[in-house]
Design goal:
Number of helices: 8
Strand order of the largest sheet: 1-2-3-4-8-7-6-5
Shape: globular
Strand content: 15-25%
Radius of gyration: 16 Å
Number of domains: 1
Distance between the termini: 33 Å
Structural class: alpha+beta
Length: 212
Amino acid sequence: MKTAMTRRLAGTMVLVGLVAGCGGAASPSPASQAAGPSAAAPSVSASAAASLAPSQAAPSTAASIALPSLPSEAKDLEALLPGTICGAATTKASLSGASFAATADEDFKAVLQALGKSASDVTFALAIGGSSGCAAGIFRIQGVDSAAFEAAFDAQAQKSGDTFTAKNVGGKDVKVQTLTGASNYLYFKGDAVLFATAKTDDQAATILQQMP
């Protein structure tokens, strides 16, 4: 079984699809379609995504469904994310440690414990670019050593057979996971992992250039 440290960005992709659909897309965005069983990256869990949009399932008819109220519990992290990506104004949401702790699964808690942390140390923020299928996010484990964080991620990716390619995109050295219709681009900085989701390297570059 994959640990939560290397699970797909399922929660992110669900929320990308939700916001894209509510923004007027008639069908799920490529990013939301890309979230398959083998897509892996450090992420908010699917249950955390449910807490970001507690009253909505992915819409089948976007025009009839209003965008749910999204939590904004880590405004400092939200402020680090772009206001516009892939030509669309972003919708932002975030979870603080206490809220995230309520959604964290046992596998993820075990990884945090190995790093000497707990779920209450986690803060997550996400920005979604309308119906573009693009997103950006920050996943922070307060006080964790960057090298240890990256090593834990790499170890779990290797165990689960997930493949990442090293690239320089938008002036940043990133790990790229190619999915169907979109890719995840992630890099570690301080006690956080930052990521962009986009259809092409060029799109990803415009997002990453706006990030810390």
